[in-house]
Amino acid sequence: RLQEYVCNRVVLIVVDNVWTQGQLDQLLPRKFGAGSRVIITSRSANLPDSQWWRQVNPRLQHHLMVGLSDGAAKQLLRASANLDADFQMPCKQLCDAEKDLVDACKGLPLALELSGCFVRSKTHNVPQPVDKWEEALSALQRGRNAP
After folding, report:
1. In this structure, is the dihedral angle defined by the CA atoms of residues 104, 108, 111 and 114, taken in order, positive or negative?
2. Which helix (DSSP H) or strand (DSSP E) does residue 12 occupy?
3. CA neighbours closer than 13 Å in the CB half-sphere of residue 141
4. Could you write out the DSSP letters of every residue in 85-112?
5. Which of 58, 27, 29, 24 is nearest to 44 (CA)?
6. What pTM does this model have?
7. CA end-to-end distance (rounded Å), the chain
8. Quick one: how far is CA 136 from the chain centroid?
9. What is the mean predicted confidence (pLDDT) over 96-115?
10. DSSP 8
């Protein structure tokens, strides 16, 4: 049905978090209107790799996206969590939980922003308890291991 819709239209299709070529083969139509664009995000530099895809899009370009530095990642997480960049965490457990969460996000801005919102405090520069930070880390890890 998607094929019928896009074959004669100019479209922008964004496919996020692709793990296998099979996912692309099932999701993407074989034909697009002239001028259409497809953006695929994946942690694999080898996608897309099928023969039909290269025929459909001979100008295929790969762009390696690099995550934020640890410092920038921590700053974004803190901003989302309602904490100043130079705020001193009140205990070692919170420092460790923050570092673990930053590491788990691997510099990905969306993951950092969502994690920061999850641990966001209503009061400026008053962090949530450690268990809330650990819960955010656990949720992030569960999501990564989901099928």
Report:
1. positive
2. strand 12-18
3. 11
4. TTPPPSSHHHHHHHHHHHHHHTT-HHHH
5. 24
6. 0.63
7. 26
8. 15
9. 92
10. T
| CA separation, residue 30 to residues 25, 46, 75 (Å) | 9, 19, 42
DSSP string for residues in 40-88: EEES-TT-S--HHHHHH-TT----PPPPPPHHHHHHHHHHHTT--TTPP
Exposure pattern of 64-77 as b/e (b: 16+ CB <10 Å)?
Answer: eeeebeeeebbbbb
Neighbours of 93 (CB within 10 A): 14
pLDDT confidence of residue 54: 64
Calpha distance 142→135 (Å, rounded): 10
Residues 6+ apart with CB under 8 A from 9: 33, 36
pLDDT in tens, 46-84: 766 666 566 666 666 666 677 899 999 999 999 999 999
Q: Per the structure block, which two tokens stand in for 19? A: 């793990």
pLDDT value for 146: 42
